[in-house]
Design a protein that fits this description.
- With 172 residues, this protein is α+β, with helices and mostly antiparallel strands.
- The chain has a domain of 102 residues: START domain (Alpha-D-Glucose-1,6-Bisphosphate, Chain A, domain 4, 2-Layer Sandwich).
- It is 36% helix and 32% strand.
- Strands 1-7-6-5-4-3-2 form a 7-stranded antiparallel β-sheet.
- A hairpin with a 7-residue loop joins strand 3 and strand 4.
- Helix 3 crosses helix 4.
- The protein starts with a helix and ends with a helix.
């Protein structure tokens, strides 16, 4: 078994155990995007964009107007799915559980950045995961979203010749 696969498996196992012992709480991260607010709002409504920025965390598919299904890799073979409804409130977006459960929720807020530098995007999530895992995932998602919106690409090391290849990981 590769080291990274083993580490991922251990992390997922730990997260699974933590889900049963951690009370859901809200965590948030904020970044400034160099784009108009309308472009930022529209970006977060597109399930393809969501899948790209949540890559490795979740896949997102539209199941109807303002309805999304999130598939998160679980510890088993089958992904854990979450059906959400997108609510728009004063340019802010809220993904809420379609079953009216308050267990999982994600809010994305928008504000004009100071000195006309674009849009401040704040993402917050309520999830039954430990705070450090949730905060790290939220920052990663915001970072990827900002890069995709501003450059058209999500940052990756896959094509970097100095990046470790999967074959190198397998040999270790």
């Amino acid at each position: 078994m590769r080291y990274l696969d083993k580490a991922k498996h251990e992390l997922l196992t730990l997260a699974g155990k933590a889900v049963t012992s951690v009370t859901p709480g809200s965590r948030s991260q904020t970044l400034t995007f160099r784009c108009p607010r309308a472009a930022a709002v529209q970006f977060w409504r597109d399930p393809e964009n969501l899948s790209r920025v949540f890559s490795g965390i979740a896949e997102v598919h539209s199941t109807g107007e303002d309805r999304y299904e999130w598939a998160v890799a679980g510890t088993g073979d089958e992904p854990v799915t979450w059906a959400s409804v997108l609510l728009a409130e004063d340019d802010d977006l809220r993904f809420v559980d379609a079953s009216d459960s308050d267990l999982v929720q994600m809010d994305i807020g928008f504000a004009d950045a100071p000195h006309e530098l674009g849009t401040e995007v704040r993402i917050s999530a309520q999830a039954p995961l430990p705070e450090p895992l949730t905060n790290a995932a939220l920052f990663t998602v915001l970072y990827r979203a900002r890069a995709l919106l501003q450059t058209g690409e999500v940052p990756t090391l896959e094509q970097n010749s100095s990046a470790r290849s999967r074959s190198t990981d397998q040999e270790a």
